[in-house]
Amino acid sequence: MIELEGLTKRYGDKLAVDHLTCTVRPGIVTGFLGPNGAGKSTTMRMMLDLDNPTSGTVRIDGRHYRELRDPLRTVGALLDAKAIHGGRSAYNHLLCLAQSNGIPATRVREVLDTVGLTSVARKRAKGFSLGMGQRLGIAAALLGDPRILMFDEPVNGLDPEGIHWIRTLMKGLAAQGRTVFVSSHLMSEMALTAEHLIVIGQGRLLADTSMADFIARNSKSFVRMRSPEHERLRDVLSGAGITAAPGPEGGLDVTGEDAAHLGELAARHGITLHELSPQRASLEEAFMRLTAASVEYHARAGDDAPPDAGVPGEPPEGRPGWGADWRGKES
Fold first, then answer.
1. Cα separation values, 230 from 2, 263, 265, Å
2. Is residue 180 within 8 Å of residue 196, measured between CB atoms?
3. What pLDDT score was predicted for residue 212?
4. At residue 316, does pLDDT exceed 70?
């Protein structure tokens, strides 16, 4: 378990982390989210005593990281996949870490096999692709078979197979009762991996809740209805005091009503429905809504930017800009 209490970090006039208090519990994958500049990397560095907090404290299973006798046996972390000596082979890099923490050499071969690097174990790391470097970093995190694992952008550079692999790995580790803490900007992947979320903005805690509750509280759900009797359906809904907004393909989007109730209403009036589907916002939409006021770096959308669909009945003005995933692929 990781406990943060009043954690604060100031760099001159810049308050990077602002009295952050939360707990990362074992048995689930906890996602750590925030816009660029929110303080995520600084927080993770302070967890590992790579940065000293201005005030507050972090405890790993009740102790500071610096107090751990064999840290790799307690905490495995991937913060920077490039933090390796390029002249060393993958095997020797891991062997050095193992010997410094009293880990048997046989474990090196095990983790190389786990991450799929056995065939390149004797090659120098400087020749590795971004994805291979990520796999080596993950192997280092797993080396001590730790109870706590921390990953910062673990899917960066991985191909689809690699992304699926690390997702399955993290879920499996959490199912074993370990603490798994992962930071990522890939919302679609986080939605498939994390069960709990800790969200920060400008160094402050914005949310500490389950994935389902986070989406429900920070987005609007609605029901999409389509019928060949469009106008009649609209009249029936209006007569029942239900407001419907125009939807795509001639549909109607209804908020604040249960799909079953709407279907029964249409059936009572003999209206044929071609679609009756509850629509839930994505994690990305909920995240952007919550953090809109905390985004430090705004990109200006060009003339060819796609329109922001937004939420039914809500204008897109003032919402964060759109962007593409620029991350490299594994070669």
1. 54, 14, 14
2. no
3. 85
4. no
C-alpha 174 chain-centroid distance? 15
Q: Do 211 and 226 share a domain, yes or no? A: no
CB contact at 8 A, 35 and 206: no
What's the CATH code of the domain at 132?
A: 3.40.50.300
> Residue 265 is encoded by which pair of tokens?
């209403």
Distance between CA atoms of residues 293 and 319, nearest Å = 9
Q: 15-19, 141-145, 182-186: which has the minimum mean pLDDT?
A: 182-186
Q: Choose the final residue of a domain: 249, 264, 279.
A: 279
- Model confidence over 34-78: pLDDT tens digits? 988 889 999 999 999 999 999 999 999 999 999 998 899 999 999
Domain boundary among 238, 262, 279: 279
Scanning 105-202, the segments in alpha helix (DSSP H) are 106-115, 130-142, 160-175, 187-193
Which residue in 286, 276, 261 sits closest to 226, CA to CA?
A: 276
- Nearest of 185, 184, 192 to residue 168 by alpha carbon: 192
The alpha carbon of 31 is separated from its chain's Cα centroid by a whole number of angstroms, namely 5
Contact residues for 76 (Cβ-Cβ < 8 A; gap 6+)? 140, 141, 142, 143, 144, 146, 148, 149, 150
Q: How many residues does the chain have?
A: 331
| Sheet with 204-210, side-by-side order of all strands | 75-78, 148-152, 179-183, 29-33, 196-201, 204-210
Give the number of domains in the chain: 2
In sequence order, what DSSP letters do the residues of 112-139 get, joined into one string?
HHHHT-GGGTTSBGGG--HHHHHHHHHH
The torsion angles phi and psi of 191, rounded to 5 degrees, stand at -65, -30
99-102 CB contacts, 8 Å cutoff, 24+ apart = 100/72, 101/70, 101/71, 101/72, 101/73, 101/143, 101/144, 102/70, 102/73
Q: Write out the residue range of the structural domain in which residue 244 sits.
A: 222-279
pTM as predicted:
0.76
* Predicted pLDDT at 217: 81
Residue for token digits 């913060």?
A: 79
